[in-house]
Amino acid sequence: MGRASLGRLKGRLSRLLRALFPGQEMPEDAFALAFLQGEERALYLAMDPRDRAHAVRVAKRLLATHPEAPDFAVRAALLHDAGKALRPYRPLERVLTGLYAPPVPPYPLRRGLWGAFQVRRHHPLYAAERIQDPEVRALVLEHHAPKSLWGQRLHQADQEE
To answer: 23 — alpha (psi -120 to 50), left (phi > 0) or beta?
Structure first.
């Protein structure tokens, strides 16, 4: 097994443990709130603590690799998973949706596992619909399919998690 494969395996195991044992992480909310503006703060604070901690790690990784990152890119890093707060995941749903994400429509948002699959697949859309800043909104929408330079850099920072 190569070094990169081993790193990905460790990352997946770490995410699995965080999904099964929620309360283990404390997000650095002060770091995030220093960047976020207006309604973005409420969107961020509505996120599960695990997702907030992940968002801060992604934003810090983006800044470490690209210190010239514009403010809107850092804010998008902090909000890229904010759509997951629309319908919070239960631990088993986090695991299952991480293993399999079938093609499901974004609306109407359903309950149960079907709804969890919807949130997994469409959380960038759900977040973007609530973000007012057009630059932040555009990057969040690119979360699963980056097109712009900053979308690609944000995606890379997220994938290194």
So the answer is: left
State the alpha helices, DSSP H only, in the chain: 3-20, 29-35, 39-45, 49-65, 71-79, 91-99, 112-128, 134-141, 149-159
Structure tokens, 20: 């099964």
The pLDDT, as a whole number, for residue 46 is 96
| CB contact set of 82 (below 8 Å; sequence gap of 6+) | 43, 44, 46, 47, 51, 123, 126, 127, 130, 131, 140
- Mark 32-65 as b/e (b = at least 16 C-beta within 10 Å): beebbeeebeebbeebbebbbbbbbbbbbbbbee
Q: What predicted TM-score, i.e. pTM, was given to this entire model?
A: 0.85
Q: Give mean pLDDT, residues 32-53.
A: 95
In total, the chain counts a number of residues equal to 161
